[in-house]
Amino acid sequence: MSTTETLVILAGGMSSRMKKSMAAEGLTEEDVKQANTASKGMIGIGKDGRPLMDYLLYNAHEAGIKNIIIVTGEDNEAVKNQYGKKDRDNDFHGLKIYYAVQYIPQGRQKPYGTADALLHAFEAYPELKSSLVYVCNSDNLYSKKAFEKLRQNNDANALINYDRDALEFPPERIAAFAVTEVDNENYLVNIVEKPPVDEVDRYRDSEGKIRVSMNIFKFDGKMIYPYIKNCPVNPLRDEKELPTAILNMVKDNPKSFYCVPHSEHVPDLTEKKDIKIFREYLEKNYPDMW
Question: Which domains does the chain have, with CATH numbers?
Fold first, then answer.
């Protein structure tokens, strides 16, 4: 892969919450079947059954990103059927698509988490260690503008820092998001999991906003690599999580991770009830695509 910047899409999770959630009103039998069997990014929620991943790739392409690595689970037939059968260098609407597989270690029932997923991409494509690497989830629809802001930012490492008030989710769902703590120059200090309501105000930034990370990042590959390689396991969730690796890097390298202020909704596909909401959003905002 001859490039200085690449987007890595993390799509190797087990979609446990989606599978466990109850079927919602307005879904077809096919919707429920896909929700129970497919990875979230491959659920057909768009026009003519197009998967969510198509729209994510479209926005990345429109923002000028050309090289994509999709990190999949071991069963990646559906992804390859959609984006190309080869392990690397597939053509998809002007994008070059590559794959990396996140294997489940022997003795475990699920993958080792997002830091481990990114590590599999680095090990499959060692050139990432000397590249600019964007990373995002496969079950959120990040906008063209969000990708553009990451590309335009001049810091080696950054995340899009979303205004919590602009997210169109129920209050109880928003309250469960991790809050970012930044210094007076918008550099990351901490990522705080589910802060108590009476403590949230202390994390307001210089604009008076409470902000959250929705897991869209930019990394200096050389700098982040040792931290994903040596990421400890979260004792509660039993996973190696990307925010842990980021905070370990920030602890060793203060002012190394810029938080780009941004205000807009990010459609999210977590439970079956989100399928109908997402479909309506796409019908309204993406009438034509490719």
Answer: 5-285 (3.90.550.10)
